[in-house]
Amino acid sequence: MLATAPPAIDIRDLRVDYGNFIAVDDLSLTVPKGEVFGLVGPNGAGKTSTFRVITTLMQPTYGEVILDGVDVLEDLESARRIIGYMPDLAPVPSDLKVWEFLEFHADAYGLGSRSQRKERVAECLEAVNLTPQRNNWCKALSRGQTQRVVLAKTLLHRPRVLVLDEPASGLDPLARRDLRNVLRAIAKEGATIFVSSHILSELSEMCTSLCVMNRGKLLASGTVEEVRQQLGNNERGVTIALLRGHEIALDWLGRHEFVHDLRLDGERVSFGFKGTDETQADLIEGLIAAGVRLRSFEERRSSFEDILVGVAESNRLS
Ligand SMILES: Nc1ncnc2c1ncn2[C@@H]1O[C@H](COP(=O)(O)OP(=O)(O)OP(=O)(O)O)[C@@H](O)[C@H]1O
C-alpha cells in the first residue's frame, strides 16, 4: 500500500498567549501540497502570531506545527530549511543593486559554489519577473518590484513552504496581478504558499483555497464558495424578468422555502433567496416547469468584503 504524503502544513490545537491575552485559540488547519492557501482576518485576528510560530520565530503556548512531516518545535533546523518567510513590509537595503542584494543572501545561506549561487540568483530573478531590473538600485524600485525582490530572496534556498505576510498590501491592481501570477507559477513548480491578507477579495483572486480567522479562532476554511457557505452568507438578491406567467411565478415562489421579500415590479419579479447554488438551479428549473416564460435571471450577492466587514462589525458590537 502507498503511504499518503504528509500535508505541507499541519497545524494542531495551536494556542498563543501574550500574558492573559489569547491571540490564537485552538487553531487546527491542514494545507495540502502545492496550494496557494490564504489566511484572511481583520486586524488583530492572530494571523502574524500564527505565522511566527510556523516560521519558528516564536514558541506557542500549546499545540503542534508539522511542515512536510517535520515537527517545527522538535526539529528547528530541518524546519527552517523547508520554510521561506516574507514578513509584512520586509526592508531592502537602499544602497545595494538588486543582484547584489540577492547574491549577498545567497552567500549568507552558503548556497553552493560561486557559479551555483549566481545561477540561483538568476533563476529567482526570473521567477519573479525581475531579470531586466537586476542592475537597478533597490531604492529605485517600485513597491510592487520591492515586494518581488524580497520574494526572490525568500526563494533562494528552494523552500517547500512559503509563508507570506500581507505581500499584496499597498500594491496597486497591476502590481497585485503581477504578484498573483508569480505566486501561481511558484506553486505550479511544487511549493506550497501560505499567504495572509485582511482583504478577502485580494486572496480570493490569488488562492486555491483559504481560511478566515477572527479573534484567534478559525471561522471557516475551504474554497471561496465553501467559506461563503460556512460563514452563513449565501443570501442573495434575485431579479427575474418574465415574458409570461407572472401570476404563476408569484404563487410558485411564494411557496418556496428559501424565498422571501417577494415583489412584482412591471415585468420583473424580485426576491431574496437564501439557498445553495444547487437549490438555486432547482428553482430556475422549477419555475420553467411550472409554465413561466423566463427572459432573464440576475443575482446579486454580498461581496466577500461585505462578509468580512460583517465579521469585524460583530467584533465591535460584542
Ligand atoms: N507581543 C505581543 N504582546 C502582546 N499582545 C500582542 C503581541 N503581539 C500581538 N499581540 C496581540 O495579539 C493579537 C493578534 O495579533 P496578530 O499580530 O497576530 O494579528 P494579525 O491578524 O496579524 O493582525 P494585523 O492584521 O493587525 O497584523 C492582537 O490583538 C495583538 O494586539
UniProtKB/TrEMBL annotation:
Domain ABC transporter: 9-240
Keyword ATP-binding included in the entry's annotation: yes
Species in which this protein is naturally found: Luteolibacter rhizosphaerae
Name of protein: ABC transporter ATP-binding protein
Family membership noted in the UniProt record: Belongs to the ABC transporter superfamily.
Keyword annotations: ATP-binding, Nucleotide-binding, Transport
A Pfam short name: ABC_tran
A GO term for molecular function: ATP binding
